Amino acid sequence: MSDSTGNGDLPGGQSVDSAQQDNDHGIVEPPLSDQDTRPLKPLNPLRPVDLSPEQEPVEPVDLPRATILQEAKPSKWLDRLPPSAIDETDRVRLLPRLPDPVPWRVILQMIQPGQTRIGLNVWRSLIIGRADLTAHVSPDLDMTPHQAHELGVSRQHAVLTPGNNALFLSDLESKNGTWVNGKYLPPGVRYPLSEGDQIEFGLIKLVVRTVSPLVRDGEE
After folding, report:
1. Pairing of strands 141-142, 126-129
2. How far apart are CA 121 and CA 108, in angstroms?
3. Domains of the chain
4. In CA terms, which of 7, 33, 130, 194 is 20 to 30 Å from 183?
5. Measured between alpha carbons, how far is 45 from 25 in angstroms, rounded to an integer?
6. Which among 104, 118, 110, 100 has a CA at the least distance from the CA of 192?
7. Edge to edge, what strands does the sheet with 141-142 contain?
8. What is the DSSP string of 44-97?
């Protein structure tokens, strides 16, 4: 009777070469006899099962390493933004330009004290009060030459604000108040001035002689 292993094959149909490859990968099989059955191979013969902590896994030599084409840092905050916020970052929003307020010309005449006339071109908000060098306060219209301190004018007493249709007077929470035509003007309330209005800042009294829009250059 001829031996089935005489052609270089092991019992069970395994060749010598394949057994040698298993040995190279750390697979140890027990010797076989006629009564023994062949043990199953592990599912992954490329990774030894009993590796020591110091031993690193053997990487297959026939698989190429991954090639990194481009490295990019992950952006965490983009994931938290809604899609609408991300899509609008490249858009330019044009806000309409508000027209400049109409400048006004007003002439105030002192009634008490004196008869001094004060002419003002009001292009923007104009503060009326008295200067205080120690507090570094310098209003646009300083009433100090008209005995403002003695007559109860506050440092920031009132404000003139130009509008499209009128020149407005407002009190700035002054200590002695602002009065128009004998009526108290509450702080923050805007009063449109008219010719002939009588104004009181504390005990200083004035009358509006003229108030009209100021014509710009090139306008008729």
Report:
1. parallel
2. 11
3. 104-213 (2.60.200.20)
4. 130
5. 7
6. 104
7. 141-142, 126-129, 156-162, 167-171, 191-192
8. -TTS-SS--TTSPPPPPTTSPPPP--------HHHHHS-HHHHHGGG--PPPPP
* Cβ–Cβ < 8 Å for 160, 169: yes
Q: How confident is the model at residue 17 (pLDDT cuts 50, 70, 90)?
A: low
Contact in structure between 126 and 143 (CB atoms under 8 Å): no
Residue pLDDT, tens place only, 75-106: 666 566 566 554 555 555 666 666 778 899 99
pLDDT digits (tens, 9 = 90+) for 146-201: 999 999 999 999 999 999 999 999 999 999 999 999 999 999 999 999 999 999 99
Place of tokens 């013969």: 45
Assigned token pair, 218: 């090139």
Query: CB-hemisphere CA count at 13 Å for 162?
Result: 20
Task: Return d(Cα 84, Cα 95) in angstroms, integer.
Answer: 20
The pTM for the full model equals: 0.55
- Residue identified by tokens 């690193």 is 56
